[in-house]
Amino acid sequence: MPIAVCLVAIPGVLLLRNADAIESVYFPKCPLYILTGWHCTGCGVARALHALLHGQWAQAWAANPLLIVGLPVLASAWAYLRLRAAAGRPVAALSPYWISTIAIVLIAFGLLRNVPYYPWTLLAPH
Questions:
Q1: Which of 14, 79, 84 is closest to 49 using CA atoms?
Q2: Mean pLDDT of the chain
Q3: Degrees (nearest 5) of the Cα angle 35, 37, 23?
Q4: What are the residue ranges spanned by the domains of the chain?
Q5: Cα separation of 84 and 3, whole Å?
Q6: In the chain, what are the helix, strand and coil shares in percent, each to the nearest 5?
Q7: Would you tell me which of 8, 15, 115, 125 could form a disulfide with 120, CB atoms 3.0–4.6 Å apart?
Q8: Whole-prediction pTM
Q9: Whole-number Å distance between alpha carbons of 114 and 38
Q10: How many CA atoms lie within 13 A of 73 on its CB side?
Q11: Would the CA dihedral through 7, 72, 50, 53 be positive or negative?
């Protein structure tokens, strides 16, 4: 399994590192934004990852602040689960509480980044 992850992750990281996420044909435009003009929760993720791989933290934050906050949280959760598995402890699936919390955060972020008033305009990718 780790080899398969590396076979997918390494080319993906190299593509994000070397291709401009705005100009490249490898990164499709958001269908929700094209159809409605609304930014979805994932709008700006490719640009944010591209900026992070170049050490441009402010530009990454401007593209998708939820990703910048969420990456350390995901990394911590992944490390915690790996340590539990290595210690022989059971690794449980996400509880309904956490699934609901994650869904609420994603939906709220998606809605708030489309509010056309300051400070919510700061959440839209720019």
A1: 14
A2: 86
A3: 85
A4: 2-123
A5: 21
A6: 65, 0, 35
A7: 115
A8: 0.80
A9: 6
A10: 7
A11: negative
